Amino acid sequence: MNGSFKVKFAKIVYGGSVSCWLSAIGIAFLITLGLSGMWITTNQLSFSPTIQHQEYWRLVRYLLTPGQRLAFQELALSSRANHHFTEVKFMVQGGLLIWIISLITSWWVWYQLKTVDSYGNYPRC
To answer: The whole model's pTM is what?
Structure first.
């Protein structure tokens, strides 16, 4: 095994481990966001629980869908609240972009590690 292969292999392994961690964090975020509607239990806005859930899922769809505008049916938003949710949408969609890139990178690293042997040779097709 030569030194350049060790360096290349180490970069692939370390890059792959970072990508896998980012992928796991992204999947955990999506699962948490998907299940977060279960934690709406109080009625602080004097709306029925059904209306609260509908408005909450409108917000989640707004955060995950590019190009969509936030418009609640029962809840009025101030300009500061609208600005806040716009910033949150930017962060969520940036995180989703990083998650997609890390998934692709993780797949590529897994493929590279699967096809290379211990001597740095790729198998012939």
So the answer is: 0.73
Taking 3-state DSSP, the helix, strand and coil percentages for the chain, each rounded to the nearest 5, stand at 70, 0, 30
In the chain the first and final C-alpha atoms are separated, in Å, by 22
Cα distances (angstroms) measured from residue 7 to each of 2, 83, 120: 9, 46, 11
Rounded CA gap, 38 and 34, in Å?
A: 9
pLDDT for residue 33: 87
- The answer to whether 49 touches 43, Cβ cutoff 8 Å, is yes
Distance, in Å, from the CA atom of 8 to the CA atom of 38, rounded to the nearest integer, reads: 46
**84: helix, strand or coil:** helix
